[in-house]
Amino acid sequence: MGGIIALLVLGAIGYLYLSSDPKWLKETYKGKNDEQKKVIRYFLRQGLLARIMKDEEYDEMVAKKVAALNVQQKALDKHGLDLSQVSEVPPVIFEGYVYDKSWSKKGKDQLWRSSRYQVSCILFSDTQVYFYQYTFNLDDVSKKESTDEYFYKDIVNFSTTSETEEVPIYDNKGNKEKVENINTTRFQMVVPGDKVSCALDRNDEEIERTIKAMKNKLREKKS
């Protein structure tokens, strides 16, 4: 009986040792809160005994942060508008992961995720289009907000574009091991001399209908 207990104790000690975060990862945690550490662990920790959140848990974390932002209201507040002033087209919200300057990972469901997320809101008044974008990191406190407004006559086009992006893959020591190419889709609003770009997490029939309605409104206002 004593031998079995000893084996169980040794097994527990071994499990704790193998499942604990390595030194290099703990270095990455410096200055991070518990939630940010969980995010970093999700993207960088590997192995059967690694204690990381599941893909669906990460999705839920992102969804909660997006919901808490209340981006539509932020857009209205930033532009000093109320909803009755931007009723030409229902407010349009695009969202998706940003892979530049972020940790990235392909989940067990074969979907790519990153530690950086972007939400954009576009509002349509009788004379102008109002743009608001909020990009935030889940592994630190970094964020970026931008606002713009355009007269319909100055907008060239609304469109989507597909791109191939290089995503770095890290080994179990935190070193960049290789680069993978992934396909991403973005919405673009083309204006003279510039393009306003928004991350998209999907490009389905609903998105196509939304962009079609935007194009129709633009043609109507420019005619």
Could you please describe the fold and organization of this structure?
The chain is of the alpha+beta class. It has one domain (2-222). It is built from six helices and nine strands; from the N terminus they run αααααβββββββββα. Strands 1-4-5-6 form a four-stranded antiparallel sheet, sandwiched between helices. Strands 7-8-9 form a three-stranded antiparallel sheet. Strands 2-3 form a two-stranded antiparallel ribbon. β4 and β5 (128-137) form a beta hairpin. The model is unreliable at 6-19 (pLDDT under 50).
Task: Please give a quick description of this structure.
The protein is an alpha+beta fold and 223 residues long. It has six helices and nine strands, in the order H-H-H-H-H-E-E-E-E-E-E-E-E-E-H.
Classify the beta-strand content into a percent band: 35-45%
Query: Count of DSSP helices?
Result: 6
Strand arrangement, largest sheet?
Answer: 1-4-5-6
Note the overall shape: elongated
The count of β-strands is 9
Tell me the structural class.
Answer: alpha+beta
Q: Give the C-alpha Rg.
A: 22 Å
Average pLDDT reading = 86
- Estimate the helix proportion, in percent: 25-40%
Terminal Cα span: 88 Å
Provide the succession of SSEs: HHHHHEEEEEEEEEH
Largest sheet entry: 4 strands, antiparallel
Uncertain runs with pLDDT below 50, 5 residues or more?
Answer: 6-19
